[in-house]
TrEMBL record:
InterPro entries noted in UniProt: CheY-like_superfamily, OmpR/PhoB-type_DNA-bd, Sig_transdc_resp-reg_receiver, WalR-like, WH-like_DNA-bd_sf
Keyword DNA-binding applies: yes
Taxonomic superkingdom: Bacteria
Organism for this UniProt entry: Lawsonibacter hominis
Residues of the OmpR/PhoB-type domain: 128-224
UniProt GO BP: regulation of DNA-templated transcription
Residue span(s) of domain Response regulatory: 2-116
One GO MF term: phosphorelay response regulator activity
Protein name (Swiss-Prot/TrEMBL): Stage 0 sporulation protein A homolog
Function, in words: May play the central regulatory role in sporulation. It may be an element of the effector pathway responsible for the activation of sporulation genes in response to nutritional stress. Spo0A may act in concert with spo0H (a sigma factor) to control the expression of some genes that are critical to the sporulation process.
A Pfam family the protein falls into: Trans_reg_C
GO CC, alphabetical: cytosol; protein-DNA complex
Keyword Transcription: yes
Length: 225
């Protein structure tokens, strides 16, 4: 697989590149966000490792631009800051995972492998048929959602979370179950990640936000009323 590593610190880029190449990947490098965007416009990457704090264009702005051209490329974001706001902003932009510096290169490679595998499964789409719940239309195979006839853009993780809930309509899924089904068994985050994405998903569904029901102390379920 071919990946892009964007970080203004050459030493960090070198370490990540060495571990990724040892894992069998080919790697391109960018020293700032603008350079990363330019490279993504010229070629397609299978995954991106993106630092937040970079000159010229930061990682958030670069990720936003890259997502416009390739909304499905897996993105792992790096940052020396671990504030919840930064994580939330990154997830709202559609990143797939978030690693705080200093980090273990082996863990980073493992996380990349996990998100790339999940992305590949999501691209496959499965054999699940489209479903409609009043004005909410969900098409897992086409990875599309429409609200009252209007296409609703979502991050890849929001799609996966909604499809999982819809496929288990009426069944309460715990946060741990949703983490396993949507993020994978090797995801190293905590169950607050689910709550954050549920909040964003409800916002995207607008008038149908109530279809995602919180079961206090148990988890969430999809229940069209």
């Amino acid at each position: 697989m071919r990946g892009l590593v964007a970080d203004d610190e050459e030493g960090i880029r070198n370490v990540i590149r060495e571990y990724l190449e040892f894992d069998g990947h080919t790697v391109a490098e960018a020293a700032n966000g603008a350079e990363a965007v330019s490279l993504c416009r010229m070629q397609k990457f299978d995954f991106i490792v993106m630092d937040i704090m970079m000159p010229v264009m930061d990682g958030f702005a670069a990720c936003r631009e890259i997502r416009r051209g390739d909304p499905s490329v897996p993105v792992l974001m790096l940052s020396a800051r671990g504030e919840e706001y930064d994580k939330l902003k990154g997830f709202q932009l559609g990143i797939d995972d978030y690693v705080v510096k200093p980090f273990s290169p082996r863990e980073l490679v493992a996380r990349l492998g996990a998100i790339c595998a999940r992305s590949a499964r999501a691209q496959d789409g499965g054999a699940v048929r489209p479903a409609a719940f009043g004005g909410l239309e969900v098409d897992p195979a086409g990875r599309s959602v429409r609200v009252d006839g209007r296409a609703v853009p979502m991050t890849p993780r929001e799609y996966d979370l909604l499809f999982t809930l819809v496929q288990n309509k009426g069944i309460v899924l715990s946060r741990e179950q949703l983490l396993r089904k949507v993020w994978g068994n090797d995801f190293l985050g905590d169950d607050r990640t689910v709550d954050t994405h549920i909040k964003m998903l409800r916002s995207a569904l607008g008038p149908y936000r109530g279809f995602i029901v919180t079961m206090r102390g148990a988890g969430y379920k999809f229940e069209a009323v």
